[in-house]
From TrEMBL:
<dbReference type="InterPro" id="IPR022966">
    <property type="entry name" value="RNase_II/R_CS"/>
</dbReference>
<protein>
    <submittedName>
        <fullName>Exoribonuclease II</fullName>
        <ecNumber>3.1.13.1</ecNumber>
    </submittedName>
</protein>
<feature type="domain" description="S1 motif">
    <location>
        <begin position="96"/>
        <end position="174"/>
    </location>
</feature>
<keyword id="KW-0269">Exonuclease</keyword>
<dbReference type="GO" id="GO:0005829">
    <property type="term" value="C:cytosol"/>
</dbReference>
<dbReference type="GO" id="GO:0008859">
    <property type="term" value="F:exoribonuclease II activity"/>
</dbReference>
<dbReference type="InterPro" id="IPR012340">
    <property type="entry name" value="NA-bd_OB-fold"/>
</dbReference>
<dbReference type="Pfam" id="PF00773">
    <property type="entry name" value="RNB"/>
</dbReference>
<keyword id="KW-0540">Nuclease</keyword>
<feature type="domain" description="RNB">
    <location>
        <begin position="7"/>
        <end position="52"/>
    </location>
</feature>
<dbReference type="InterPro" id="IPR003029">
    <property type="entry name" value="S1_domain"/>
</dbReference>
<dbReference type="InterPro" id="IPR001900">
    <property type="entry name" value="RNase_II/R"/>
</dbReference>
<keyword id="KW-0378">Hydrolase</keyword>
<dbReference type="GO" id="GO:0003723">
    <property type="term" value="F:RNA binding"/>
</dbReference>
<dbReference type="GO" id="GO:0006402">
    <property type="term" value="P:mRNA catabolic process"/>
</dbReference>
<dbReference type="Pfam" id="PF00575">
    <property type="entry name" value="S1"/>
</dbReference>
<dbReference type="InterPro" id="IPR050180">
    <property type="entry name" value="RNR_Ribonuclease"/>
</dbReference>
Length: 180
C-alpha cells in the first residue's frame, strides 16, 4: 500500500470542536503534561474552570490564528536549520565514493527523493541520474513507482545505496545518485 505525503497535513488550531481526521474522533483537544505548549495551557485553564464549575469564556479566535502562524514559522525555521546542518555535514562526501543506505520516500516527474538511513537527511536524485533516455522513464506518483522500459525499477519504501553527487549550500539541498 502507498500513502502519499500530500495527505499528511498539519493540524489546524481552532476554537471549534472539529473531528480529528487521523484518529477518527468526532472532537479532539491536545494534552501534554507537563504543560509545554501555549495551546495546552489554554486547554488546562478551560478544563480547570469546568472542574471547578466556573463559567468559561471561549478563547479569542485571534489567539488561534497567532498560534497557528507561530507554529508554521517554527516548523519552517526548524526545517531550514536542519537542512543547513545536513548540507554542511554531507558536503565533504560530495563527489566521493562514500555510499549511504537510503529509503525512497517520494517519486515525481523530476526524479526521486530519498532519506539517508544513517542520519535522516533528505536528498534528491534527478531523473538524468536514473536513466539516460528520458522517454524510457515513467514516474508514477500515484503508485509510487518508477518504470524504466516498462519495468518497475524503483518503488517508494525501497532501500537503495546512493552517493552524494553535490551539496548546494546556498539552497541547503543535497543531490544524490544511485551507487554504482
Amino acid at each position: 500500500m502507498f500513502i502519499s505525503s500530500s495527505f499528511q497535513t498539519y493540524a489546524e488550531i481552532t476554537t471549534e470542536l472539529v473531528p480529528h481526521f487521523g484518529l477518527g474522533l468526532e472532537a479532539y483537544a491536545t494534552w501534554t503534561s507537563p504543560i509545554r505548549k501555549f495551546g495546552d495551557m489554554i486547554n488546562h485553564r478551560l478544563l480547570k474552570a469546568i472542574v471547578r464549575g466556573e463559567s468559561i469564556a471561549r478563547p479569542d479566535d485571534a489567539v488561534t490564528v497567532t498560534m497557528s502562524e507561530r507554529r508554521r514559522l517554527n516548523r519552517m525555521a526548524e526545517r531550514d536549520v536542519g537542512d543547513w546542518l545536513y548540507a554542511r555535514y554531507l558536503s565533504p562526501f560530495a563527489a566521493t565514493d562514500r555510499k549511504f543506505s537510503a529509503e525512497l520516500i517520494d517519486i515525481s516527474r523530476g526524479g526521486m527523493r530519498v532519506r539517508l538511513l544513517e542520519n535522516g537527511a533528505v536528498a534528491f536524485i534527478p531523473a538524468p541520474f536514473l536513466h539516460s533516455v528520458r522517454d524510457e522513464l515513467v514516474f508514477s506518483q500515484e503508485s509510487g513507482t518508477l518504470q524504466i522500459k516498462g519495468e518497475v525499477v524503483y518503488r517508494v519504501t525501497d532501500v537503495i545505496d546512493v552517493t552524494i553527487a553535490e551539496v548546494r549550500m546556498e539552497t541547503r539541498s543535497v543531490v544524490a545518485r544511485p551507487a554504482a
